[in-house]
Amino acid sequence: MKTVSAIALLITSLGVALPSMAEEAKTKPDTKAVKKPPAKKSTKEAPAAADDEKEPDIAGLTGTAYDCELGNKLTIYQLSDTDEIALRWNKRLHHLARVSTTTGANRFENSKKGLVWIGIPAKGMLLDSKKGQQLANECKTLEQSAPKAASNG
Question: Which residue of 13, 37, 74, 146 shows the fewest CB atoms closer than 10 Å?
Answer without folding.
Answer: 37
